[in-house]
């Protein structure tokens, strides 16, 4: 079975400051890793994903995440946040042999002007 | 390409009633999954359908059921509604044609309020 832990339920950060949203997972099989973002009153959108290859993956809006197999982590980072980054962020894993996703409970990122 | 469409977007029901939610996946996607989202609980997996067959099921009571039609459209039904069923119900579709193609594309959800 798989599980995902997002340690921080709420993260307030000032505009232009760096941010890290933490995600740890447990799994008995190899997994794919994802970060989804949910803006207010919208569905979830894929932010970035790790399937294989380079352990550092990037999104088009400046976020990056690094897959650390030994620490079973997939933390999300951004060096300088904007007001528009205010949203709920969900980490998810899926076994590479199936299609059942397991989501964390989410981290609410609030960017303060 | 049209995204995942869910109807209705908002609905209010009373305890004991039943509700049916609909989801139209992205064209060509054969897998449809349903999730319940509540504050503090995150997304809880309900079930997944693939080619009209339920392939995976989460840990929800039998009051929650679903089906998928030959055109991949899916419906979920909740019978004998309880106050705790109030939530945002999200549908997601995926291509699911082998490893690495299981990325989920979500609809905007159906917000159910049970009074």
Molecular structure report:
Chain A has 113 residues and is an all-beta fold. Chain A is 0% helix and 53% strand. Chain A is built from no helices and 12 strands. In chain A, strands 2, 5, 6, 10, 11 and 12 form a 6-stranded mixed beta sheet that branches. Chain A is globular. The mean pLDDT of chain A is 91. With 115 residues, chain B is mainly β. Chain B is 0% helix and 52% strand. Chain B has strands spanning 5-7, 10-13, 19-24, 31-38, 42-50, 53-57, 64-68, 74-78, 87-94, 105-106, 110-114. In chain B, the strands form 2 sheets. In chain B, strands 2, 4, 5, 6, 9, 10 and 11 form a 7-stranded mixed beta sheet that branches. A 4-stranded antiparallel beta sheet of chain B has the order 1-3-8-7, with no helix packed on it. In chain B, strand 4 and strand 5 form a beta hairpin. Chains A and B meet through strand 5, strand 6 and strand 11 of A and strand 4, strand 5, strand 9 and strand 10 of B.
Determine the number of helices of chain B (DSSP H or I, runs of at least 4 residues): 0
* End-to-end Cα distance of chain A: 41 Å
Helix-strand pattern of chain A: EEEEEEEEEEEE
**Share in helix of chain A:** under 10%
Number of strands of chain B: 11
Compute the average pLDDT of chain B. Answer: 91
Low-confidence spans of chain B: none
SS strand fraction of chain B: over 45%
Content of β-strand of chain A: over 45%
Quick one: overall form of chain A? Answer: globular
Report the major sheet of chain A. 6 strands, mixed
Order of helices and strands of chain B: EEEEEEEEEEE
What is the residue-averaged pLDDT of chain A?
A: 91
Query: Which consecutive residue ranges of chain A, at least 5 long each, have pLDDT under 50?
Result: none
Radius of gyration computed on alpha carbons of chain A: 13 Å
The percent of residues in helical segments of chain B reads under 10%
- Backbone CA Rg of chain B: 14 Å
Most extensive interface: pair and counts? Answer: A-B, 26 and 27 residues
């Amino acid at each position: 079975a798989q599980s995902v832990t997002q340690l921080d339920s709420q993260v307030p950060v000032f505009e232009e400051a760096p941010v890290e949203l933490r995600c740890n997972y447990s799994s008995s099989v190899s997994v794919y890793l994802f970060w989804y973002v949910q803006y207010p009153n919208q569905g979830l959108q894929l932010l970035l994903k790790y399937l294989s290859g380079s352990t550092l993956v990037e999104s088009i809006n400046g976020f990056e995440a690094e897959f650390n197999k030994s620490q079973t982590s997939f933390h999300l980072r951004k060096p300088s946040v904007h007001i528009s980054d205010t949203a709920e962020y969900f980490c998810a894993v899926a076994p590479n042999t199936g299609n059942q996703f397991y989501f964390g409970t989410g981290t609410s990122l609030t960017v303060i002007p | 390409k049209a995204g995942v469409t869910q109807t209705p977007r908002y609905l209010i029901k009373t305890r004991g009633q039943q509700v049916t939610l609909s989801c139209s996946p992205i064209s060509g996607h054969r897998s449809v999954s349903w999730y319940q989202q509540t504050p503090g609980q995150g997304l809880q997996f309900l079930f997944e359908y693939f080619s009209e067959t339920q392939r995976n099921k989460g840990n929800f009571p039998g009051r929650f059921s679903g089906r998928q039609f030959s055109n991949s459209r899916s419906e979920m039904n909740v019978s004998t509604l309880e106050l705790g069923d109030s939530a945002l119900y999200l549908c997601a579709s995926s291509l699911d044609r082998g490893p690495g193609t299981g990325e989920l594309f979500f609809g905007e959800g159906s917000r159910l309020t049970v009074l």
